[in-house]
Amino acid sequence: MSILDYTATTLAAKIKAGEISAIEATKAVLEQIEKTEELYNCYVTIDKDGALKQAEEIQSKIESGELVSPLAGVPVAIKDNICTEGMLTTCSSKILGNFVPTFSAEVVENLKKAGAVIIGKTNMDEFAMGSTTETSAYGVTRNPKNPEHVPGGSSGGSAAAVAANECFYALGSDTGGSIRQPAGYCGVVGMKPTYSTVSRYGLIAYGSSLDQIGPLCKDVTDCATILDIISSHDTKDSTSVGKKTDYTKALVNDVKGMKIGIPRDYFGDGLDSEVKKAVLNAAKVLESRGAILEEFDLGLVEYAIPAYYTIAAAEASSNLERFDGIKYGYRTEEFSDLHNMYKKTRSEGFGAEVKRRIMLGSFVLSSGYYDAYYLKALKVKALIKKAFDDAFSKYDVILGPVAPTTAPKLGESLSDPIKMYLGDIYTISINLAGLPAISLPCGIASNGLPIGLQLIGDCYKENNIIQTAYTYEQAGKED
Amino acid sequence: MANIISDETIDYVGILAKLELSAEEKEQAKKDMESMLDYIDKLNELDTTGVEPMSHVFQVNNVFREDVVTNGDDRENILKNAPEEKNGMFNVPKTFD
Fold first, then answer.
1. Is A154 tagged catalytic?
2. How far is B26 from A61, CA to CA, in rounded Å?
3. Which residues of chain A are within 8 Å of residue B54 when distances are taken between CB atoms?
4. CB-CB contact of B88 with B73 (8 Å)
5. ipTM tops the 0.90 cut
6. Is the pLDDT of residue B62 over 90?
7. Active site residue A381
8. What is the CATH number of the domain that holds B20?
9. Residue of A92, A93, A131, A154 marked active site
């Protein structure tokens, strides 16, 4: 067994026991990157020397007993919209092509305290807008399970890096499914925690009311362990709530009496038959372990996408106003005056999908349309939240697919934006309602690509979905 | 109902968005926005009379703190990111005569 096959927690235990050093683990990852990165393009930035230097420092702190975190010495990759002090952070956009943050995001500080070795920054859809990692200004990322297919997005580089053993775990961000969908497409575990659990300080904002940072990793144990480390109360993020939960306590192989709701509206038209079969099969496995399954009608599913794109575009148009060619990033070469500089800088610096959403967002917020579009979407969001509240009065967990299909082929998605947006149908409402949800592998389709299972919990009830996911994962090892 | 986006509207949105679109991009933007708005109009099937718009999913209160500086002077590093710098300040194009 190669070092690369270990999960993050297993590797950390071996480092702690002195069987492997953090330096060896880092070298193993860097060697793997040498071999496969040219094909997959998981990273925008790789900090080889910095990673080795960190590994040396961390190794000596582990040996002296100063560092005892359950992930000390483990190499990690960070999505390129999360600020890292002194390390290029581009959001996969031309407009931030030369941006070096002067501070690190709170999650990065939390990882550093826990002795993580930061390998580099992963590729993504530009400003996290997209579902395929094809809108990156720095080339597409390929799916390690089949390089002719996309890894999903927007955290496609993070998911692919984990799947390709180019890191042991990664951080991503999820605004409408951007952690869970690529995790599903690449056959790894990904989780979006409850909104406000992980600080957004230092995460370059897309849709602030929807964005949440979370882990992409090899198994459910890693997921809970990472979440323990990255969740914190942070006064620098005014929405940070800081309910401290011990997530690893939920790593219990038992679902007796767990009430699992299966929304009929998640299994209708548009869902690939193989995906449907694999997901329902996973439900049966949980039933055989003592979970109580019940089908129900969640409702409003088809309204989540239009509500989401209205709200996300509105917030994006406001958040991306800061890219003006003055304080950081790209500035156009020639211009006539200040406003002309703004316009040319932004038009040359942003890609097509980002411009599309800024235009839509500016429109729905403009006077005369604000009530009809933006406020209407916020009202529908309230109805969607209520539908989930009703469901969670009956169930501990909601089970469904992550995406309607397995990963599409490269180049097939961007020509029809609405069709691409429809791929987010099972993930998007979770962000509108602020809920936690985990994506984990539940089978391989006949095309050889992984199928993702999604487990959704009520707000701050991560432990219900972690316990259910863990039990399902263990069942796979037992059978 | 099919939405029609006029040239005036797309120009106006371009001003709000601070984006300069080429003639070709403008035509594409009109089409994109029309089809997105047709799609978003689906929300009108729902009766939302009496529903409060939900901007935040949790009951949150404003967080107050003392107005005390906690970060140091990082001007030099911050200015390294600026496209143009002059005398320790951001250099911007002339804004008025």
1. yes
2. 57
3. 378-379, 381-382, 385
4. no
5. yes
6. no
7. no
8. 1.10.20
9. A154
